Hints:
By secondary structure, the protein is mainly beta.
Amino acid sequence: MAGKRVHLEGLLGRKVIDLDGNNVGRIEEFRCEERDGETVITHFLLGRQGLIERLSIPGLAYSALLPFGARKGQVTHKIPWDKMDLSDPKHPKLQGRKEEVEEIE
């Protein structure tokens, strides 16, 4: 993906699958930082915690998120930018297996 630009708003809500075709979750939020005067993505957050952060409501009860797409038992995955294949931004893929990525609370 070096040098390619992707519109982040087009990635929000996109389902991510792993190498085995398993559903990892939906892209709900991004982590970024400034490097050499440019803003770069460091991580993607998939799942409930990402949705909570995107909506900026960390104290809100989980039940209030159900209309926004949250699901019971949904785990949040933190995926480094270099582990995400965005060659087809409409169908992002994890470059690895679901079990290999970090889960966060």
